[in-house]
Amino acid sequence: MAKTLNDVPPEMLWEIMAFLDARTLILSSSVCRLWNEIVKSSPGLQYTIELWAEGMVRGPSGTLTRAETLEMLRERRRAWRNMEWKSTTVAEIESLQVCRAYELVSGIFAQQQTGPEFVALSLSRIVQDAESARSDYPFGIDPLDFQDFAVDPTLDLLVIVYVLQGDLAHVECRTLSTKQVHPLAAHSSIVFPHPHDPGMLLSIGIADDIVAVFFLDPAELILYNWRLGTIISIYVRPEFRLFLLVFILTQKQPALEPLLLPIQDFHLLSPRSYILARANEDENRSGQIEIFTFDGDSPNAPKRVATLELPELASRGLIASINVQMGPFCANPNPNTPFSKANERRICMFLIRYNLDVNLDVWARLFVHSSWLERYTLPSVRGDNGTEPTIVPWDEWGPLNSRMLAGDDHRWIRQVHGERAALPCQNKHSLLVLDFGVIPRRAESHLLSEKSSGSPGSATMLEVEPSTMPNEHEVFVEEVTTSLPYRRTIRSVEKRHDLFLIDEDRIIGMNLEDDTAVRQEMTVYTL
């Protein structure tokens, strides 16, 4: 009979360790030489550790062995750290400056063109056969009525918002593959009052069973469980109070307070939480990030659980805009790859425009892990009694858990995916990738081992020391110093690009210099 775990046959010990998570496996490998050897020699255990380190989750491996998927994961890591792409493909699309809307999720680039055509490009197939990678479907919606769309390819879900001339907004849930009503949708569409305005600003968020539609000016918000067919919450403008009263009475929803204005932006964190970015010229000039939770299964009023304050501004400054960007929330792993990015391992980028006077704007990018924001949904973290939102001053959260860098006016969506952001440089033949998925000690060892294998024209640097936001225009009362670790990689590219989009396996470069062009090229760099 075995007296200790070390007396157990190694193959049985491996079976036991297979139930452990990555952090526990790393700790276990330091217990003794035997355990360390078992962890190091097992492709399955190493795969668990590497998935955690890269912020990935398991997907379908097909016929691949664990050793093969482990090597694929390591090759992927090397490719991203050295900016080594396997292929470069050029495709023609309608210019982003003229199209009605576009999306980039799970290897699908989709675009609603100025005409009736909805175009979807499979970026994994475009390398082999550009013609078969493209599908065109008309929605059957007047282009003047169409507003926006969003997709989750892992659910085969396409959400469309359009507003008819009678001031009725429609939200439809279709399949991405056939454009017909989604079989899991409880209703083909929901309808609510909204003015018909082709120039309105709105965004759509999808997080599993929740669809959120946010209108910016004036602020309106609809949270909808598309599988149950239940409107969870709805905030509409004052002229539609009669509709809201009928909704409250028929849906048995508690009366909602109006959204406090002005709201700069909205984003779903998870299927049961979201954030609002807020700032105004009076008591809240410095800006706040508000975190809300809600019950996604029945009508209810979302609850503000925490408010994170942004750096205090000097008397002459105010926030003119905050744009929130985060990679897509995908309900399932990508079925076409053995691993996918974990939803809880995403970086949130706040693009902030500080206005000092009529002719002077200062741009900044603030990066925060979505998991840090979502932790405030837990009462144990907030340390409160659950009745009032927790107010967190900047000095208590920002310096250690964020990174503020100088920014510029680039508000195009899908510049962020997972824990990476792909940004243009002043030199339009250069690409900058910021990777916040670093574990400093582990990253340093990999950086040393892979230092000599970088692509020509590329340079990478691990940033673990605090940095201070430039303040020559005296935007802030005090210096803003932040220290969230990240890796920055710059690579030269042959083509000129002033915009980059990013997803799990590729970077897309575009040139928007000619704002009168109807068609444009996009260059797909596949890693």
UniProtKB/TrEMBL annotation:
Coiled coil: none annotated. Residues 2-55 form the F-box domain. InterPro entries: F-box-like_dom_sf, F-box_dom. SUPFAM superfamilies: F-box domain (SSF81383). This is F-box domain-containing protein. It comes from Mycena metata. Transmembrane segments: none annotated. The lineage of its organism: Eukaryota, Fungi, Dikarya, Basidiomycota, Agaricomycotina. It holds the Pfam family F-box-like.
